[in-house]
Amino acid sequence: MGIFSRRQSATIEPTQAVGPRTPFPAAGATGVALDPDFRALTGQWTIDRPHSRIGFSVRHAMVTTVRGAFADYDSALYFDGAQPSQSRAELVIRVGSVDTGVEQRDAHLVGADFFDARRYPEMVFRSTSTTQEDAESFRMTGDLTIRSVTRPVELQLAYLGSVLDPFGYERAGFDATTTIDRTDWGLVYNQRLEAGGAMVSERVRLQFDISAIRSVPPA
Predict the structure, then answer these.
(1) H-helix or E-strand containing 207?
(2) What is the pLDDT of residues 60-106, one digit of tens each?
């Protein structure tokens, strides 16, 4: 996921834990002329879970919005600052970790009507291509698998900057969003309202607020 194009000097609050460090193999760069700071961030990264959010929002009963997030996931990222198209990402999410702030609703989501976590405990995103749109915007296409159904999705990425924290971790941040139709993945459960419309919208907005940490120090 080649989304880091500039370096900023800053300090941030300390972190005590980061997500699992499962790197991709390095990708070879070709002769693309880019900012030197962008090249300096080439390497393997992982998502720092205590400072990140993998979330979603969906319209409920036609008039309100329910928001939730997943607390348990693994990540493996590779950023290529010389050739952004070679950047890639993988995210494995345990659906049983969903949290919308209402225990009864969370139990319904992990049940057979929605994620069916006993049969399909994970959903997975694996990137297939990355395109740089401008200095701080990127588009990443990938395959999203939910309930053993795999379909392509496209993420819009916004680069937020990079810092070196007090513990020596090099980290960078970005936001990513996309909107999907949940029925494309077999999530078809719904209830019809007496006045018309559905209890739960078929359109779901996925939101990624990411603080990524370099998992292997640069050579």
Answers:
(1) strand 200-214
(2) 877 889 999 999 999 999 988 778 889 999 999 999 999 999 999 99
Categorise residue 23: left if φ over 0, alpha if ψ from -120 to 50, beta otherwise. Answer: beta
Res 11: pLDDT: 37
Q: What is the DSSP string of 158-203?
A: EEEEEEE-TTS-EEEEEEEEEEEEGGGGT-----B-TTSSBSEEEE
Average pLDDT value over all residues in the chain: 83
Burial of 106 (0-12, 13-18, 19+ CB in 10 A): middle
The pTM is what? Answer: 0.81
DSSP summary character for residue 24: P
The C-alpha atoms of residue 43 and residue 48 are separated, in whole angstroms, by: 16
108-123 burial, b at 16+ Cβ within 10 Å, e below that, comes to: ebbeeebbbbeebebb
Beta bridge partners of 192: 198
- Taking alpha carbons only, the member of 212, 206, 196 closest to residue 63 is 196
Question: Across the strands, what pairs with 21?
Answer: 75
The answer to whether residue 6 scores a pLDDT higher than 50 is no
Backbone φ and ψ of 102, nearest 5°: -130, 115
Q: Are 97 and 122 in contact (CB under 8 A)?
A: no
Which pLDDT band, with edges at 50, 70 and 90, does 129 fall under? very high
Backbone region of residue 37 per phi and psi (left: phi > 0; alpha: psi in -120 to 50; beta: other values)? alpha
Give the Cα separation of 1 and 4 in Å (integer): 9
